[in-house]
Automatic annotation (TrEMBL), chains A, B:
Keywords: Lyase, Metal-binding
One Pfam assignment: HMGL-like
Organism (species): Oopsacas minuta
Record-linked CDD domains: DRE_TIM_HMGL (cd07938)
GO biological process: ketone body biosynthetic process; L-leucine catabolic process
UniProt domain Pyruvate carboxyltransferase: residue ranges: 22-289
Protein name per UniProt: hydroxymethylglutaryl-CoA lyase
Keyword NAD assigned: no
Pathway: Metabolic intermediate metabolism; (S)-3-hydroxy-3-methylglutaryl-CoA degradation; acetoacetate from (S)-3-hydroxy-3-methylglutaryl-CoA: step 1/1
Family statement: Belongs to the HMG-CoA lyase family.
Domain of life: Eukaryota
Amino acid sequence: MRHSTFKALSSLSAVRNLANFVQIVEVGPRDGLQNEKTIVPTSVKLKLIEMLSDCGLSKIEVTSFVSPKWIPQMSDQKEVMQGITNKPGISYSVLTPNLKGLEGALASGANEVAIFAAASETFSEKNINATIDKSLDKFRDVCKHASTNNIQIRGYVSCVLGCPYEGHILPKAVIKVSEQLLSMGCYEVSLGDTIGIGTPGSVDTLLREITQFIPADKLAMHCHDTYGQALANIMVAIMYGIRTLDSSVAGLGGCPYAKGASGNVSTEDLVYMLHGSGYETGVNLKKLIEAGNYISEFLQRQNGSKVSKANSKL
Amino acid sequence: MRHSTFKALSSLSAVRNLANFVQIVEVGPRDGLQNEKTIVPTSVKLKLIEMLSDCGLSKIEVTSFVSPKWIPQMSDQKEVMQGITNKPGISYSVLTPNLKGLEGALASGANEVAIFAAASETFSEKNINATIDKSLDKFRDVCKHASTNNIQIRGYVSCVLGCPYEGHILPKAVIKVSEQLLSMGCYEVSLGDTIGIGTPGSVDTLLREITQFIPADKLAMHCHDTYGQALANIMVAIMYGIRTLDSSVAGLGGCPYAKGASGNVSTEDLVYMLHGSGYETGVNLKKLIEAGNYISEFLQRQNGSKVSKANSKL
């Protein structure tokens, strides 16, 4: 037993030293605010995006080009895009569920878009009103059009570790959707534990299988902290060589209909873990905490970052 | 890079399969309640201990034989010990800072005691009013007397990853105190990240050094979740072969003087992680959640377990 343990750890240290830059994708303004009850005014969103831009974050997902009928929280997408002071070196990406969304994003000057597929058939049908196959057909058109316009496309796969309707999701379902997203032109696929149900063990199982087909540098992890497992799960992803991680300032998000439900893993706690473990992110943690406090105060919401809470009492 | 990553993970899987029982030491009634503002009536403590005993937990730290002048929360230690319905197979341990405490514990029928040293000189002086060396002298007497009475002794070392006064603590300080506790008769040393400041990287550094001198089966990890790092840190401990973990139901504890400060890692979230990752604990998670809800409701305190919160909305 001890022999195996030592082997694991010396390898862990090796991984740490070999590739120590981690790319954080800040999804708070989109995935976070989209799932908050309060509809946040454009000016507050712009202030938040500006604060996040000042932290050293280089990828920020800022809004979603979806129908306001479905997601009223994102109905000011054009105003948000117009209001952003683009900083050099920062990609401000947007979610585009279809061609119409992509056209809106292009007209607003977006330089990166994201599409959102599911590994669960039922979730796909309930969430985006299409079977997985039909959704992929639609995304293929989006990708073609984006590619013609030299726009980078990121792919999301939701429910990779479990689905609220179907329960367990097989790794092969995740692999199939991920491969298709990559083949249609996505530069990377972000694996979403949408309901935060995964554990280090289930992440291990998924990544052991998927990395046999897709290299780790084409994958990102997108963890929600619903069951408190996000950082532990992310450590496993790092051990598999994944170096792109999605997170949300102040842990914004969660289910708007459930009191106390956790949202995305908080960027502050993630950055604290990474910096403390010898990884670089380029992010200024102090400024990030200020951004998280700003939006939490506006929302009159408990800050979802434990690092922020710990700092507030220092 | 990918080669190293794969090596790490195949070893991780090997560790998982080889030694899959994890001993949980439930410290909620002692370390948890001792750090809550509210002084909990004996009857509530006894009900909590009974509920915890019904969960399948086999080690529960129930009280502390310290002066009520210092820790009024534990002033009913005799009544607690008298009131417990001992269940076979469960060790109900108590903290004993000195010979007087040990005598009280013996008179109350305790079958296991714990002593509490620090890896930080300043913390030792401020917390237990003695230099590390003087505290160890005192503990040596406690150990001798306990051994004469066939009482098992567990050792704690606090501040192993950082100290509120001294900041960084060197692994060699932790090793020195741990070795002395073992040599005076402790069957195990629990390494406490008292202020929850550690990260997977700093846990890795500490354990890589300490396991060169002390085998992993003589070590336990005691993590606080102040910075949200506890479960990720524990995953690293597991990779080092450590199979004894301290935790607190509902994440009880925290600093009584700081609003929103996190306590011990919650037993519910730990058990969820372990079971989901293929480890056995013998604990019934559903019953554990009930115990955590019971004490949280009594304390009118937000339940510190995310698993409990996620379950409450199902």
